[in-house]
TrEMBL record:
Belongs to the DNA mismatch repair MutS family. It comes from Glomus cerebriforme. It comes from the Eukaryota. Signal peptide: none annotated. The gene is msh4. This is Putative msh4 protein. GO terms for molecular function: ATP binding; ATP-dependent DNA damage sensor activity; mismatched DNA binding.
Length: 212
C-alpha cells in the first residue's frame, strides 16, 4: 500500500500531493483517537490493519485481566486469547481513509496514462537510440575480438579462399590450441568431399566455414 501511495515523488502532481496529504492526516487523526482511548480507559489496546476491514483494535484476554471492555468498543470478536473490536469513530476514519486511497489510486493511474501518452509520441526515437546502441555494441565487440584473436577483414569475391581459418566459436569455448584449416571453392570447384573418422573435426570444419 505504501508503494502505491508513493509511486510519484512529491511535487510531481499537485492534486495528487493534496490527496496523499489528506490520507496521511486522516491516519494521524485515527492514531490520536486510539491514543485517547488508551489514556481514557487505561487498557493497552493495539492498532491492527486488515486489507478487507481496514484499521481495527485488539487486546489479549491476559492484558484485559478482569476488566470489562467499555461500551464504546463494538463488533467484539474473540479469536483464541485475542479480542478484536472497533468503534464508531474508527469506522468513520476507515471510510475516510478508503475514500482518500481511492482518490490517490485514481489520480496515480491517470498520471501514469498521461506519462504513457507523452512517451508514446517519442517511442520512435527510443527505438532508434536502442538500435544505435546495439550496433555500437556489436562493432565494439567485433573490434575487440579481432584485436585479441588476430582476425583479419575478409574480401568478398566470387571465389571462397580461406587461409589458416579458425572456428571462432570453438576458440571461445575451449582453451586448447585450434589447428587452422584452409578452404577453397569456386565456380569450377564447387563441390568438396570431406572424409575422416568420427570426432576428427568434420562438423567443426563445416561450421567454421559457415560462421566465416
Amino acid at each position: 500500500q505504501t508503494k502505491k501511495l508513493n509511486i510519484f515523488q512529491a511535487g510531481f502532481n499537485g492534486l495528487l500531493d493534496v490527496a496523499r496529504q489528506t490520507y496521511k492526516e486522516t491516519v494521524n487523526d485515527l492514531n490520536e483517537i486510539i491514543d485517547q482511548y488508551r489514556e481514557q480507559y487505561q487498557i493497552p489496546i493495539k492498532t491492527q490493519f486488515s486489507s478487507t476491514t481496514g484499521f481495527y483494535l485488539s487486546i489479549t484476554t491476559e492484558q484485559l485481566e478482569d476488566k470489562q471492555l467499555p461500551l464504546v468498543y463494538i463488533n467484539v470478536k474473540k479469536r483464541r486469547k485475542t479480542l478484536t473490536f472497533t468503534t464508531l469513530e474508527v469506522m468513520k476514519k476507515n471510510t475516510k481513509i478508503n475514500d482518500s486511497l481511492t482518490e490517490v489510486y485514481l489520480m496515480s493511474d491517470k498520471t501514469i496514462e498521461d506519462l504513457i501518452s507523452e512517451i508514446r509520441g517519442g517511442i520512435g526515437v527510443l527505438y532508434k537510440v536502442s538500435e544505435s546502441i546495439a550496433m555500437l555494441d556489436m562493432l565494439t565487440s567485433f573490434a575487440h575480438q579481432c584485436t585479441v584473436s588476430n582476425y583479419v577483414r575478409p574480401e568478398f569475391t566470387d571465389t571462397l579462399a580461406i587461409k589458416n581459418g579458425r572456428n571462432p566459436m570453438r576458440e571461445s569455448l575451449y582453451t586448447d590450441t585450434f589447428v587452422p584449416n584452409d578452404t577453397y571453392a569456386s565456380s569450377t570447384t564447387n563441390f568438396q568431399l570431406i572424409t575422416g573418422p568420427n570426432m576428427s573435426g568434420k562438423s567443426t570444419y563445416l561450421r567454421q566455414i559457415a560462421l566465416m
